[in-house]
Every structure is written in structure tokens, then in C-alpha cells.
Design a protein that fits this description.
Blueprint (H helix, E strand, L loop, with lengths): L12 E7 L8 E2 L2 E5 L12 E7 L4 H12 L4 E7 L4 E6 L4 H10 L3 E4 L10 H24 L1 H28 L6 H14 L3 H33 L5 E6 L2 E6 L8 E5 L8 E5 L1 E5 L1 H4 L5 E4 L4
Parallel strand pairs: 1-3
Antiparallel strand pairs: 1-10, 1-11, 2-12, 3-10, 4-6, 4-7, 5-6, 8-9, 8-10, 12-13
Helix pairs in contact: 3-4, 3-6, 4-5, 4-6, 5-6
Length: about 300
Amino acid sequence: MSTPDTDGKKVPPFTSFRLAPAIQKADSCCCEEHCASSAPVSTAVAGTRYTWKISGMDCAACARKVENAVRQIRGVNQAQVLFATEKLVVDADADLRAQIERAVQKAGYTLRSEDSRDAAPESRLKENLPLITLIIMMAISWGLEQFNHPFGQLAFIVTTLVGLYPIARQALRLMKSGSWFAIETLMSVAAIGALFIGATAEAAMVLLLFLIGERLEGWAASRARKGVSALMALKPETATRLRDGVREEVAINTLRPGDIIEVAAGGRLPADGKLVSGVARFDARALRGEALPVERAAGAG
């Protein structure tokens, strides 16, 4: 939104931008001038760039694992995982979608089309079932050990094996994809080593604490991702493009670097770019927390 100009300068009713490669924003434009913006980073270049949504990532380390798995495929020029938006962007010399999907699945994650609807979220119980099961088994094992030490030790061994199964399975997947020293591998080695030296209770406790940490990390990542999604939802679906002096309403995924778009006062920027002419004010509170509109002159991005 625009604010009164105390210096007596008149705020133009429109702003125009020229598109340039950059990351999308959701700033509000306070006046109308010529501005430049870029096509979204996730927009695929026909025949060479492919994008997917990824399920199953809890942290930035998961994103690196996916990138490493994809980069090992012959013909892949570049692979980038956008953790905040759960997107995989791949530049390749040929159509390698089948190989990429198989590689990511082997790494323990799921790919789906960017145009597909978001998968229905799992129930809280199903999502936390492995952790709940391990906690219950830990309590039973501890109780048995108080009355019968040998049975308690055996119960802790079973508890450790139950907790180790999903972690070791993920470790094997990552080793096959080239990630030999992932945290899952180290935790598996630690738990197996503890069993060999007879520290059965400690082995089970290490796995329990690891799973608790994984769930907390996933919960924090989910909250941060929802915040990013809410910010991205502010992005308009269409833009007013100027071509040979004629205004046309187009979808933002059709914008290309070099296009000139027009933004009305109080409107939202559909893409990044540079101001072509004049002076404009932008509301950047959603991105930077600044209370007052930021003034930009021609040539500013």
C-alpha cells in the first residue's frame, strides 16, 4: 500500500518492471513504474529442466542427500533441492525423469509432480507410531529388568532391534546412493556396537533419543515450511505484461527474463526484477519486517 508523500512528490499510479533472473518475492508495490522481474526459479525450461515436490525431508541434511543421489546420474548437469518449499529442480541433457525418480526413491524419499495435489497428511498416531512403540517397549524392558535381569536384558535387545530397523534400512539406502557417512549410518554403528559390549539399555536409549530428535526436527521444519507457504500464497497468479505498448494479462509462469510488467499502486509483485523508470515505494514488511515502505529508483532491484 502507498503512504502519503510528505515531501510533496506525487506517487505514480502504476509501476513497470523488466524481468531478470532472480528469486520470487511477494512485496507489495506502492506505486506504478516500470519494473523488471524474473520468472520463478521452479519454472522448467522445456526439455532440460524438471521440477518435483519431495516428501519425507526433515532437515537440510536430507536435502543434501537427495542432491547427491541425483547428481550421480549421468547426464544431470545440475540438481538443487529447495528445502523450504520441498522442491527438486534438475537440469539435464535428456529426459532422465525415470532415473531421477528411482534414485530419489532409493535414497528413501518420495517424488511427485509439481502440478499434483499435496498428499493427504498422515495421522498423528501413524506418524509417531515408531516412536510411541519404542517408548512403550523401553518402559516394559526397564520393568522386566527390575524383577529379572536376564529377561530385562533380552527385552532391551529386542527393543534395540525394533528401533534400529527403520534407521538401518535408511542407512543402507543412503549407502547405495553414495552417502556412506550419514547420521543414520553412524547411529546404526553406535547401536550395534553397544549391543556387542553388552550395553543393551544404553543402545535402546540412544535410538530413542535419536528418534525423538528426528521428530522434533521434523516438527520445527514443518512449522517453518508452513510459514514459507503462507508467504508464497501472497504471490499473485497473474501479471500485467507490456508488449509493444499493449497491456495483456498473463499467468506468472509464462513470464520470461526481459519481459516488462506493470504493477498498480497497492498491487503485489509477481516476480523479481528491476525498476525501469521513475521512483516507486514497496511494502517489504512480509520479507524484512520494515514498518515503512521502501523507496526504489529506476535500476534498483
